[in-house]
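Review session, final week

We close the course with one last complete record, chosen because it touches almost every idea we covered. It is Abhydrolase domain-containing 18, a protein from Bellilinea caldifistulae with 357 residues. Go through it on your own first, then we will talk.
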Amino acid sequence: MNRTFAHFIDNFIEVTLGSLRLLAASPQFHSNVWETAPTEPQDPSVFYSIPPTPPELQFDFVHRWLDGRTHARFRFPSFFQSPQPENNIVHGMADLQSEGESSAALILLHGYQMNTFAPLKWFAEPAARAGLDVYYLALPYHMQRAPRGSWSGQYGLSADVQRTIQSFRQGVLDLRAMISWVTQVQKKPVAIGGLSLGAFTSLMAGVVDDRPFALVSLLGGASLANIIFAGFSFRLIRKELQEAGVYPVDLEKWWYMLSPGNFKPALPREAVLLVGGEHDPIITPKNVRKLWQAWQKPRLLWFPCGHASVAFYARPIGERVADFLLNRLDALEHTNLAAADSPSFMQQTQTSTKLAE
């Protein structure tokens, strides 16, 4: 796919969907941000901390398909409480293997303004066919979490600087809560990932959480603030900010805690897979390369697409992601076997046996 066609698709979708919604929305910038916005970086382990107890998931609408997989909706209370009650219940969908056949789980987050998990499933299907349970998680203010009278994502990323900070923080906390449920209740290894805004959320979770065995970023980058000032798609939000005297340096400072490129990952380099679009005007190649540099150059795959047009490459991307996850699981298994065979482990086992006697 060439650059011109990729940008045509991105701009067409933005004009026909995103811009019409933003034009209908009322201004969201609040002038008190100059006094209330954070001016100094915080400790991410504190900013994104969660309780040790996993959430209680409630499953509904369970359906078993002919291939043996089970599809179900689930929900649980968010650890973060926003002013909108609808947003405080986390909603998701699960694509589960037959009982006892799943070796691991994958948690995926969708992109900005998405009101369905369908596009995300195109990328996840190879992993599901490879035997992984897949959980799709709705970001704050999206889908069922959108307050009455708003469209999916309207309050999630906007010119309201402070609300965007809290929304993003809530998304990371929700993802970490889901990690806790899979690892503590299901007792399975878990990988995390996301697309676009969901990728940024997953990346920030990877800054503070070392439990996932893998992290997959589909069109994520180093700086969230950069996407507002890069290209056509966020021009209306950008216009509102600029009219209020907000410059890129201001937004970079205020959204410092939302930008993965400002931090080192808690996961090893081998556990991270980055996917970038060569013609992406939103999460630009420069933004992706900055993340790649900041995160010690993990594996990076490029595809000849823009942002929305990444959907044309869902199958090959999904296959590469599935291979990556299976390889990570193999490496994890070999590491555990090596640890079990080590002299120190054997000595600890013998000591524990004697104590038991």
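Two points worth writing down before the exam:
The chain is about 45% helix and 15% strand.
The chain has one domain: 3-356.
Good luck, everyone.
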